[in-house]
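Q: Got a minute? One more chain.
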Amino acid sequence: MSAAGGAPHRAPEGPPQTNWPAAWAYSIEHPDAIPQGMNDFSCRPDAAHPRPVVLVNGTFENSYANWAMYSPQLKADGYCVFGLDYGGPDAGPFHQTGDMRVSARQVGDFVETVLAATGADRVDLVGTPRADSCRCTSSTISVESRRSAP
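A: Always. Here it is, folded:
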């Protein structure tokens, strides 16, 4: 799902990767690819894994490059795994280059979509360096999503 909105859909899954350079190279050639196990909106959390995991990519990267190694592992371990390409153009492999306030709103909107789809009350956000800005903007995400921050 793109951060631009619209109904959740499954983008084509790329192969699992064992390292970042291989994942990055694949994502350049296949900019719409997502990691295996990501964005299954029919996934329902269970008692062992009650919160969906939202993987947040870093600056000039995309969900496939950042998470192609980890998403399949998390899914195999029983987690509902989600991710988005945000903070940049809808097309192409380079994301998280825009205004961080806009990015925070996009992540917040995506979290709301995940919560509505899964019936969960909270998600676990996992990020890379620029995605770490979510820690700084978590109150913005919480306010905009009308949920209280932990």
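A: The helical segments are 20-29, 63-67, 70-76, 100-118, 133-145.
Q: Perfect, thanks.
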